[in-house]
Amino acid sequence: DSVFQGRSLLSTRDYTKDELMWLIGFAEHLKDLKRQNIAHHYLEGKNIALLFEKTSTRTRAAFTTACIDLGAHPEYLGKGDIQLGKKETVRDTALVLGSMFDGIEFRGFKQSNVEELAEYSGVPVWNGLTDKEHPTQMLADFMTIKENLGTLEGVTLAYIGQGRNNVQNSLMITSAILGVNYVNATPAELEPDPEILAVAKALAEQSGATITVTNDPVEAVADADVVYTNVWAAMGEEGQFAERVRLMSPYQVNAELVSHIKNPDWIFLHCLPAFHNAETDYAADIEAKHGISAMEVTDDVFYSDHGRQFQQAENRMHTIKAIMAATLGNLYVPSV
Ligand code: CP
Question: 29 CA to middle of ligand 1, Å?
């Protein structure tokens, strides 16, 4: 039997430290196989539904290529393609898809929807991002940290960004599980949800990690080994952009801020997409609407020798393979 078979990944809270570390190790193995062009068809003959209520580059591409490399068939079901949320409930959609597909990826607005899919579909469901969590991103992020720093033990991760978004929630919780010291530098108005902070602090007591929230980005980066940031307004929050920029401007990750980092071997991470130059249509649109060109990270940091965000993006595929194969591939993993 496998300790993973049949399980969903709705939050990293569903997994222990040892289980998450096993998945990261398995993803490293799958990355080696991919590099050597060695087949790894753990999911031969399986059908995987990819439900996307929101746009995606990395998550969609990672799930699609991961399915194909594992021998499975991916079926993309976009917001405009299926009845979900219009003519049909989440429960009924789960019952139908679960009768035809062996596993379901879901990216959408509500965490409660991914939970309902898992409850009623009868197959593993993998959370590809909701309002509350981004757990598949976490596997890639901590794999990238381990690849670059050699360990997660004693590592300090500083997240310079608002405390109330899905990536922050998941980073804080996953750091707490894995024993990674975590600092969130955020404006006072956007500090983490107290309930999620309490969960992280309780998990950190078991792992020995420290969880810190500060309004001072310089204090946050000083002892960091990893500096992580994210867009200031998430999908669907563009209407709040001007106010966000006002609050977030002191938290831009730029040359001046990173000059305070003591560890010369620090790395920069970003889940992407990043708002770091004015070349994109999105940047031009924001500038036209708000007369503001502020970005969460500047090019001199983004394209510096410290940047590992594209390695992190590639690792989405290897880690998504790991979670799909582990939960659906009848792997022999008796205990970890
Ligand atoms: N990091 C991430 O989830 O990227 P996408 O939104 O492009 O999937």
Answer: 23
